Amino acid sequence: MGSERIEVGIADGVAHVALARPDKFNAMDQEMFAAIGDAFRALGRDSAVRAILLAGQGRHFTAGLDLDYASRQFPPSQDPGRAAEARLRHIEWLQDAFSAVEDARPPVVAAIQGGCIGAGVDLASACDLRIAAQDAFFQVAEVDVAITADLGTLQRLGHLIPQGILRELTYTGRRMGAEEAARFGLVNRVEADAADALAAGLELARTIAAKSPLAVAGAKRSLNYSRGRPVEEGLRDVATWNAATLVSADLGEAIRARLGKTEPGFGPLAD
Q: Residue 97 — φ and ψ, nearest 5°?
């Protein structure tokens, strides 16, 4: 799962994924997009992983799309129709890398320091929870390079912050600081610096990893499924899930531990 672009480690049920291109402020090129997609698809199937902590090495979480990489993607073509079809497939491939984060079975906690720019906001929006360092800022920067944000910000961020704020950020490209991001609900909390944000993210991931993995997976599945759907559809879906899974050993273990005032021990999910 690891590569020259990301580092992956697993300990005590928590996978730690680090964007590992600090000399380029973790700018995302083709290799990084591929590595992110591959890693989160693999971690989503790994029965040893119950929560994922995502961070970026160096000063910034990520500077977003590597513009040198982007400028080489679409050479002139004699056939505009074929060129458009190739662009569509490439954009969908990029989208799939971040959808793998949202679709991963374990919840994903992002620890964000410095800049979270452009594609970084797309990536952060696909995570379940976000912890920010005091120096963190978020910028939907695509408008400044004449691109319509197309990797998930416009589809996901509106479920985290008010539409008016999302539209302002998208149309102007201005920076949103950590405190403002917390005020509008984009981040769960703000810590003093990168080390504290990473520590808080790890503590949160470990707390999640100690819970029933079946219950947590069901909750994430239901939250994702219910977003944008009528309440009735979400209720039917979660009822079906619980009708199938409440017979698991986790329920008995949780009740036994609660009554005995002990820590529960839950087995892994199937891979």
A: -60, -40
Domains in the chain, number = 2
92's enclosing H/E stretch is: helix 80-103
- Pair type for strands 14-19 and 6-11: antiparallel
**Both 91 and 184 in a single domain?**
yes
77 pLDDT higher than 90: no
Percent helix / strand / coil, the chain, rounded to 5: 50, 15, 30
Map residue 175 onto helix, strand or coil. Answer: strand
**Confidence (pTM):** 0.94
Whether residue 1 lies inside any domain: the answer is no
pLDDT in tens, 235-257: 999 999 999 999 899 999 999 99
Task: Write down the pLDDT at residue 34.
Answer: 97
C-beta separation of 188 from 201 below 8 A: no
pLDDT classification of 199: cutoffs 50, 70, 90: very high
For the four alpha carbons of 141, 143, 149 and 154, in that order, the dihedral sign comes to positive
Give the H or E element holding residue 8.
Answer: strand 6-11
Quick one: which H or E segment has residue 15? Answer: strand 14-19
C-alpha 69/C-alpha 253 separation (Å) is: 51
- Concatenating the DSSP letter of every residue in 45-86 gives H-TT-SEEEEEESSS-SB--B-HHHHHTS----S-HHHHHHH
162 and 242 inside one domain:
no
Residues 6+ apart with CB under 8 A from 152: 95, 98, 99, 102, 122, 125, 126
List, edge to edge, every strand of the sheet that includes 175-177: 115-117, 137-139, 175-177
